[in-house]
Amino acid sequence: MAMIVVQILLGGITRLTGSGLSITEWNVVTGALPPLSDAQWLMEFEKYKSTPQFRYLNFDFTIADFKVIYFWEWFHRNWARLIGVVFAIPFLFFWWRGYFKSHMVKPLLILFFLGALQGAIGWIMVASGLTGDAIYVKPTRLALHFVFALGLLCYTFWFALQLTVPATDKVYNPSLQKGVRWIMILLLVQLIYGAFMAGHKAATASPTWPTINQEWLPSGLYKSSEGTLNWVDNLIFVHFIHRGLAYLLLAAILFYTVQLYKQQGSPWFYHARKWPAILVLLQVGLGIFSVLTSTKIIPGHWGIFEWMAQLHQLVAMLLLLSLVQLLFLIRRKALGTT
What we know:
By secondary structure, the protein is mostly helical. It folds into 2 domains: 1-164, no CATH class; 165-338, no CATH class. The chain is 67% helix and 1% strand. It has helices at residues 2-16, 38-49, 52-56, 63-97, 102-127, 139-164, 174-200, 230-233, 235-260, 267-272, 275-292, 304-329; strands spanning 171-172, 330-331. Helix 5 (102-127) runs antiparallel to helix 6 (139-164) and helix 9 (235-260) packs antiparallel against helix 11.
């Protein structure tokens, strides 16, 4: 599971450094090796020069600049390959030796399928930025890639909880179980809008807080010419939704935490119930600092904004996992019922 977290963070670094379109082909096996000679580097650089990103944005890149962005995309892809190897070899060995219990095989096969699917979605995302006049991948496809990565992470965590948490450590409370489900749905929408923010590089569209460009109800919030595209492509609208959902999540999780502390349960439950409130407070703070520091963005330089954005992504994952853990620990039905 830790490797999946690292992979998602590497995806964030790849996005923040503008590296995602540096490798223009998807070679699952042969692409594991980077260019090993000057001639190979020149060949890869020429391929990159044919992309819209180079023509419209990075036209002044030298091969030294190209090597930097190539590294992060190559590392991101190779870490995904390594995850596959780390999963497949032990799985085949333990399956061959009969170490798996029958109920464990199906979830493990689903994990492998989800990992492979995530790789395919990653290439579909990259391909969206290699044609036309796109200088970055499409935000909607970035959001899809991000959400599926989180789905893989959550499924892995859920499976780990099934293997480690005794049934007696769960608590029975249908109301709390329903509450965490609704909060997770709200968080899912928020994560999608976070991906839209990232895909559009929208932080600089309104580097102010608590207002949006000094307005509580910002002008340009809805453009009639864009219609439903306002939900995805209007940067001010995306800001407004992302911030509004953050406040709503903060209030919902703090209220929900109060209810959690009224519930009796196991030591595992007592430990788990504090984390959503802690993490959502931290996440809101990081979101605010990410917006405020976006004015310090320097192209090609990793600075304070990039650190804030990466931490914002990490805490988002931890917040999601803290809610998954509560969803697992809180039962809708009492023990012994069907």
